[in-house]
Amino acid sequence: MSTILSVIQVLLAALLIFLVLLHSGKDAGLSGAFGIGGGGSSVGGGSMVERNLTRATVATAILFVLNTIVLLNL
Predict the structure, then answer these.
(1) Where are the beta strands (DSSP E) in the chain?
(2) Model-level pTM?
């Protein structure tokens, strides 16, 4: 069980890093390469994608923390 949770932890960590890098910063960062950071001039599509990206990042972070707590208690 510990091995499976450890593999899940590594996958969650990689996914969390990827999701954080997709967020647009001041200069649209890496997310500009994928068309996510519309710079505020998009017609509503960019803000919805950014909001969903934020939700996915928060959900992944919560799963990461919960998995860490479970691994510590084993």
Answers:
(1) none
(2) 0.73
Which tens digits make up the pLDDT trace of 13-68?
999 999 999 987 765 555 556 666 555 555 555 688 889 999 999 999 999 999 99
- 48, exposed or middle or buried, with CB in 10 Å at 0-12, 13-18, 19+? exposed
**Residue 60 contacts residue 5 (beta carbons within 8 Å):** no
Q: Which residues contact 51 (CB under 8 A, 6 or more apart)?
A: none
The whole-angstrom separation of Cα 57 and Cα 15 is 9
DSSP state of 38: -
CA 74, chain centre distance (Å) = 26
C-alpha to C-alpha distance for 64 and 74, rounded to whole angstroms = 16
